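Hey all, sorry for the wall of text incoming. These are the two entities for the joint prediction.
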Amino acid sequence: MILLIPVSPEVPANHRPTFWSGVILALVLLIAYFEASSVIDADNKYIDAVQNLKEFNEKGSAAKVENYLSHRPLLRLAPAKEDWDIRRLMMANFLHGSLPHLSLNLLGAFAGARICTTFMPFLCTLSIFMVAGTIGLWLSLLVTPQSSGFIPHLGASAGIFGLMGAYYVYNFQFRTKYFFWFPSRHGQIALKTSWFFFVDVILLEIVLSTAQLFPDRLDPVDHIAHVAGFLGGVMVASGLRAIQKWPGYLQTRGEFIFWSKLVIPRLANPYAAPADAWLDLLTINPYNDAIKIKLAELVFAQSGNLSDEQIARIVRHFSPTFIRLNSEVVGACVKECVSAGRPLPRDWLSRLPYDSVIYIAKKMTQPPEEQVYLLRFLREYQQLHPAGSDLKRKLDQLTARLGGTDSSSATEANRA
Amino acid sequence: MNRPLANGEQATHARETLLAAERDHLLDCPNAEFAIRLAATFLDGILLYLLLSGTQNIFNALAEQLPFVPPLAEGSSPSQTAFWNSRLSDILNYVASVTKVSIVYLYCIWPSLRHGGTPGKLLLGLRLIHSDSGHSMPLLALLFRELLGKLSLVVGGSAIVQGMWELSPLFFLAALGFGVALVRPDRRTAFDLLSGSLVKRLHTGAA
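and here's what came out:
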């Protein structure tokens, strides 16, 4: 995760993550660290003293050493395998054993809480942090082989991975903007959350957590807590979405509030057109590809029920990136418009890059008897570009090569 | 007079025509700037590191299991167990090395042959093509390019990390190989010139 930093979901500027929730969570961790520092210092001194005892090095005195360890000061605040309860499991999410441990987790907590503000209020974020963190710490206590049953488990990282799990659930279908340390604008890229977030955040942790099950491993990082916290966050966020009845095609909290408070009540009215409701959602979040796909499918299936203006509004949302990633759906939509004689918006067509036209055209070659629509689409695009330009020359060549191959044009040629 | 094509032929002809149009368009796209090529190499480095370190960790975890293999633990003398453990450890190390080399090949070569670039290049909207035809690079030219380029990166990177750049002639050669792109108007590195390749920029990165 340190190498590819998830900065924000790919959303408009007014939906981007805000700082304050990350700052509040980081401040809480900082305050908890300073409040508990006296107990941690006392615990460190206690452990040093135990290690200096002669019983520590004698064979057969393990039970005595365990007895000493069971009285260590930190166990008043943090849980251990042989001595835990729910209160200490929850408190351990806010405790850290050292400044380096705290520093890393402050960054993670800030980033995790911040990134979740796109779709959750702060109290939900904090609840997921505590519940998932508690689950992660508890599972780690139960499963990790340890030399003593009185080694305390503490740290916010299980909760931080819980926030990552919640983000994964809410943003699964969409894209996340990553920063990968390259010092220029090229150092940012938007990648599919379903694939890249999984690989970047949790895959290595899963591999490292299996190694943690072997007692000879000396890696001090609690990878099992990370994985369990992530899964806890996924479970809690999935449950929350089920309770909210959050549709899978909505990405941000703004869209959800609009959909649940304004659209759903209106849909009881049979005269309300869903196309308009989805177009309104795209006004809130123009990056939402799931809704664009729904609209393209709507045009393909029911173009007769849509007005020219609605179709134009829908098609204008097909950006070059969307066309490249969803050319099948866009190709079907464009073919339907051309075959039904519905006009494509001229401003959109004139701005369309040539490679987007190729992507769409590739999806319009089947079935062969409908290639006449491909030619009509290309000719419409051709007419919008000035004669003598390089693009016009390429289009002329392309339409000439394609022009004599479809059976409809062959039939027209024969009639002529 | 040309006969009308049958349906199957029409579909194939249309697809091939569009592919040819796409290749012609690729040749007309701008050559990728040095900065974005470096960013793509950076991204490839990160993704490859994640894959290789994950693989190494899996083999390390497997290696931890070796002393616990039951047939070796029961009924064998300690020296026999140590001998077989050592053999298995060697085999495991060999398999780990082969797996990592395969991963590097699959990462650097196969996507370039099939899709026109490594994952880092594809994600940032770059395409590696043959400079004359606009087709994907042939295998031998690609192997030559990748071997030379990655070797230079490793040499140059090691020299920088160890602070030996003022002493190592290899560092200067490596730097020259890449630095050529900064002065050439077509932004091609020495490895591009030697292998006959071009890196084109298609679109801004989103995947």
